[in-house]
């Protein structure tokens, strides 16, 4: 897929609206993780270097179409100033944008109030997008992680202005696209996390492309149960049991190996202070599987060792609790090592998976850690994302 790139635009003196995703986690008004802000650095620096006048628009949380003080993008000003080394001018509403863009000085950026304060945003309202577009010459779509939503600031606005892909969006599409289109084989997919139902689309669309699928995390127990095992109080999605049975059968008939945990670390619940390792075939009735066990770690490593491409979505245990973090950590370490040795092209998708890899400090050693969350999953399920489609050009 070819996208219209910013280097095809004349930027000097142009008023550019950039859709970023600054939907950072906040605690008492403080940003607890600034990854989503720093991820747009290259795009914004490129625009500034080329003498564009830049305004940034984002959503923050779920204000449901109303002004909510605790979700105002005002709270992001000092972090944006620190990260981009520029002064931020704030536009409280759409009516302020035009005047503030006119008087924007070099060294200044305009930041627009949370776009989801407007109910028209989620409705992908054309008139609203027109109004948003009026003060600008060009639109740059850089919010890959919001590109699975057809909203006014991700979709409709692109039909009002000449639109181009930002560098972050471009990189995401390139890296994830490589895995989606022609992954170098053998190709292994590692799946974990909490819910099977979240990942059904990905499993269906990638099953036949993969050589192996390693399943850990909460998800594994639905598959273990579907293969006839007792799973105690582990997370099992009853409504996905049929799907799991079907997938196990389909994998078998198409020669894809699905690898399930052979041992698991169990406890009374996610907060337990200690865990014990048991065979997957002997999970006690009153215990919950919360991590993959050491034998499974070795088993997974063996498959990863023989692979050239890995796509990982979903932590392999309750990594937030150090007692159940080992599986996720060890597999992350191993993938990092293989990637360092240029033996593996490694892509991590999913919000919590990215957080886990970051927490254990393997982030920079993966080929790509997607900022995508839900968007990275939908990228594999769908032909094209609604926020990307207007940017595509015929090859
Ligand atoms: P991602 O955001 O990467 O797609 P998910 O949202 O699907 O991942 O799942 C992440 C959550 O899954 C984490 O909060 C983690 O604690 C939880 N999890 C992992 N393994 C288990 C398990 N065995 N039982 C319950 N929850 C689990
Ligand atoms: Mg998640």
Average pLDDT metric: 96
Please describe the biggest sheet, giving its number of strands, its sense, and whether it closes into a barrel.
6 strands, parallel
CATH architecture of the largest domain: 3-Layer(aba) Sandwich
Helix content: 25-40%
Q: What is the molecular shape?
A: elongated
Write the CATH fold name of the largest domain.
Rossmann fold
Quantity of strands, as a count: 19
Q: How many domains would you count in the coordinates?
A: 2
Q: Strand pairing plus helix content: what structural class?
A: alpha/beta
Low-confidence stretches: none
Q: Under the CATH scheme, which class of the largest domain?
A: Alpha Beta
The small molecules bound here are: adenosine-5'-diphosphate, magnesium ion
Write up this protein.
- The structure is a single chain.
- The chain is of the alpha/beta class.
- It has two domains: 2-170, Rossmann fold, CATH 3.40.50; 182-381, Rossmann fold (3-Layer(aba) Sandwich).
- It is 34% helix and 18% strand.
- The protein is built from 14 helices and 19 strands.
- It has helices at residues 35-38, 41-49, 77-84, 94-102, 119-122, 126-133, 167-181, 196-206, 219-226, 241-253, 294-305, 326-340, 351-359, 374-381; strands at residues 2-3, 15-19, 26-27, 30-31, 53-57, 87-91, 108-112, 138-141, 163-165, 187-191, 212-215, 257-259, 263-267, 276-279, 288-292, 309-313, 345-349, 368-369, 392-393.
- The strands form five sheets. The chain has a six-stranded parallel β-sheet with strand order 6-7-5-2-8-9. Strands 12-11-10-16-17-18 form a six-stranded parallel β-sheet, with helices on both faces.
- Strand 3 and strand 4 (30-31) form a beta hairpin.
- Helix 8 runs parallel beside helix 14 (374-381), helix 9 (219-226) packs across helix 10 and helix 11 (294-305) packs parallel to helix 12 (326-340).
- The longest helix has 15 residues, at 167-181.
- The N and C termini lie close together (7 Å).
- The model has no long low-confidence stretch (mean pLDDT 96).
- Adenosine-5'-diphosphate (ADP) binds at residues 192-195, 198, 217-218, 235, 270, 289-290, 313-315, 317-318, 320, 350-353.
